[in-house]
Write a structure and sequence with these properties.
The radius of gyration is 15 Å and the shape is globular. The longest helix has 17 residues. The protein has a 4-stranded mixed sheet with strand order 1-2-4-3, with helices on both faces. Strand 1, helix 1 and strand 2 form a beta-alpha-beta unit. The protein is an alpha/beta fold. The chain has a single domain, classed as Metalloproteases ("zincins"), catalytic domain (Collagenase (Catalytic Domain), 3-Layer(aba) Sandwich). It is built from 5 helices and 4 strands; from the N terminus they run βαβαββααα.
């Protein structure tokens, strides 16, 4: 299956990351393949700032604070469009630094995480997390990224 991954930049700081477009497109496609989607073929990655994620988080989740990533699954549609994933630059950058990761690696993780949410995966309940997190970890391993759920030694 061919996928259509559109990147939209709402914060130009994202553009300064070398290899970002290809890395996130590859991560999204791999998440779609490993998530075994048969219901959709397209999505948008919005790479934006903390203010935009804060507004989205407030308007759609009732939480008036920025967050790292949000997913917005689309309703069933003839175009087979899956939905949108939005990632905040500032939050992602701070998390990457706190976790001793590169911003590109963390943005890749957030992309995989967000795309899996579009496919219906969740992690709120332990039972759901036991399905989503190992899949997410396997996808990240294929991309050369360490398990984000493993406790630091």
């Amino acid at each position: 299956m061919t996928f259509s991954i559109h990147l939209e930049f709402g914060d130009d700081r994202w553009r300064k990351l070398r290899g970002l477009r290809s890395r996130l497109t590859t991560a999204a496609e791999l998440a779609l393949r490993r998530g075994k989607t048969h219901r959709g073929s397209g999505l948008t990655l919005l790479l934006t700032d903390d203010a935009r994620l804060r507004a989205l988080n407030r308007d759609f989740r009732g939480k008036d604070k920025p967050t790292n990533v949000l997913s917005f699954p689309a309703q069933e549609n003839a175009e087979r469009y899956l939905g949108d994933v939005a990632i905040a630059f500032g939050v992602a950058q701070r998390e990457a630094k706190a976790g001793s990761k590169t911003l590109l690696a963390h943005a890749t993780h957030l992309t995989v995480h967000g795309v899996l949410h579009l496919l219906g995966f969740d992690h709120v309940r332990p039972r759901d997390a036991s399905a989503m997190e190992p899949l997410e970890t396997r996808i990240l391993a294929e991309l050369g990224i360490a398990d984000p759920y493993r406790e630091a030694a």
